[in-house]
Amino acid sequence: MTMPSEAPKQAFRLSQLIYDTRYRSMTIQVFAMIMLMLVFSWLLSNTVQNLQALGKDFDFGFLTQPAGYDINQRLIDYSSQSTHGRAAIVGILNTVLVAFLGCILATVVGVLVGVLRLSKNWIVSRLMAVYVEGFRNVPLLLWIIAIFAVMSESMPQPRAFREGGGASMMLGDSVAVTNRGVYVPAPIWGDGSAFLIAIFVLSLVAIVFFRRYAAKRQEATGEILPVFWISAALLFIPSVLFYFILGRPVSLEYPELGGFNFKGGFHLRNSLIALWLALSLYTGAFIAEIVRAGILAVSKGQSEAAFALGLRPNRTMSLVILPQALRVIIPPLISQYLNLTKNSSLAIAVGYMDVRSTLGGITINQTGRELEGMLLLGTFYLLLSLLISWVMNIYNNSKKLKER
Amino acid sequence: MNTPSSNDFSFVRKEMIPEKEPPLTEKGIIKWARENLFSGPLNTILTLASLYVIWFVVSHVFPWFANSIWDAGSLTECREIRDARFGEGVSSACFAVISDRWQQLIFGFYPSSGYWRPLVALFVFLAALYPVLFSESSRKLLLLSAAAPFVMFMLLWGGSIWTPISVAVGFGVGVAAYRIALPIVGNLFAVAATVIAPILYWLFLGGVIASALHSVLPIGLLFVESKDFGGFTLSFIIGISGIILSLPLGILLALGRQSNMLIINKISVAFIEVIRGVPLIVWLFTASLLLNYFLPPGTNFDLMLRVIIMVTLFSAAYIAEVVRGGLQSLSRGQYDAAKSLGMGYWKMNIFIILPQAIKTVIPGIANTFIALLKDTPLIVLVGMAEILGMINLAKANPYWLGMAVEGYVFAAAIFWLVSYFLSSYSQKLENKYSTEKK
User: The CATH number of B102-110+226-437 is which of 3.40.190.10, 1.10.3720.10, 3.30.160.20, 3.40.50.2300?
Assistant: First the structure.
């Protein structure tokens, strides 16, 4: 509020702290701060007293003690002799793994379904509407449990894959879907594979630079380069060429039936598959609605204008509709990614060993360190959420309408 | 030169011929299918793929539904009936587990003589919503809405009727304290009195008055313990109480986040972001494992109350963001106009800003409620017997060993119905308000 500049000079009175708008906000803030401190110190003193009464202390030393439990799904070396800290890291990696896979699949599903729901094809758009409404309106926990039940009860047992067992492997004997999980081929990294990976990364970098160059050239001269085909060539030709020049350094190890179970290859457990599929299909339904709303938000005049200028439908989509739709789509998409990451903590329902099950579950139960464990767990999720929204906000800012 | 006459042409039609039927491919269902389903190669592939998906799902699920058995005493009986009726090994759902145990799936261990109580409570809730949602109804009805939470508490938990009445009187004490104190000590201290008087009343007088009245006039309903709640009733109680209780807190947080007082703003932002950054399941475990650490030694109150407190704090953060959206949608002129009429901060917000802001975000609040309702199955993980817990109980029962899928289908169907109709209703509200605005 603007005050007249010629305020009467008066000695400061204590009542001004309450009745003078210049000071009142300061009074309120100091009061709020004091109240907050009081509440926190009250909580803290209660906690200290309660810990004392239970004979506990506040100590993160348990993280260096041996954990003594096994984790069946792990990305790094871990045995029951490893420490609780390492168990937590295994859990963190598992959480990040399922969140990452889930975000990718959910985006693919969501974009496909969102576009197909706008299709003129009656059957396709109805089917997509049924998918979206079906998945959105049923709790995620039910979906996780239901997909897990289907995976472990309806899929064939490994022994059904023997001769005449009625089940067969898919994709040229490379993928086996069993009731114990999915077996897929695993790559074996031979000599020179590091060089091959370097070539592959270099070609990715080259694609990025080529795309930038093509965009700049198009803006300067109006010529359009065949970006897609050149990118595809850059992606495949050098890597394939060097793959044969180096003498096939990378080979695949196929899963094979040995005894009662499959051996070799990667074993994707049911818990991972169920969690991954449920998270992606559930979040995909929400993303589909976001994509649909984003495309509908671009007014019809835009595509009509593009057609009037003689742009073909695919160029209209990529140059006119999508850049505008993305501005509407990205902010809610960020919150869906955050939701998916947070929902991955439902892993406990199917026994997937994510950070909530290791650090926040077994470790807490074994050491009795609820306070420290939950604190670490909460901090981890908070940091992960902040990280995701930070990265996505950078992307959002690059796509935002630049007002000049 | 002779002019051409009609006689020069060998044939001239004198009358219109009847209209021809369009070719078979250009009319009716064939035309529609050609234009909509098979208009191009991609579209044809999509149509065929969708038809395959539909056939696949229907051929697997339909026989299971069509052969369902609703009337049996146990799983073995169910299997016998199936073998007799449809032949051995035919896929057939045994919904008898639902018809046998529906009371538990819906009401938990609530005493069966009191099944009407949760139902009436739900009805009271819906009736209380009416004056809130439709502002054209009279203001006096809002007072009845304010009384609804106490009536619902009375219906659900029962016990002496004087307890909720005595708690409600506390709010009256607050209002009375404001009225009395205002002319004597001025606005600021009157507000302080409004806060302090009811707290003193609840701490020292409320319990005494309630028990005294109860000994004089013992009216009441059968007391139901929190651990007897279960099934869908529990989900709904947690969802509804979470959303009602979180509204005031959420509105305060939203105002705090909009405030230009630095400390207030930072406190609100920190609370909202911390709550939203951590999954609900972690908060629920915090409630069940840690809340006792933070409270004075010796306090121990039941898990349901702890879960409700945590759910309330959780949804308050989400409500705050929804309400903030409403506050931001208001034009600056509304604030300026209110200030120029000499209104203070609270008067401006209560009479000008919030009524408009909240009206526009009612659909958002409804969506938060749906999300919260769909999150309630998580409480099974901290050991509360809501619907999934009840299904697990049924699954462990020797008569129904392993009968889970039918239970899940039942639970999914009810959740689907409730949240689908709620979300389509909130969409309708959204359309109504958005047209009003234009």
Answer: 1.10.3720.10
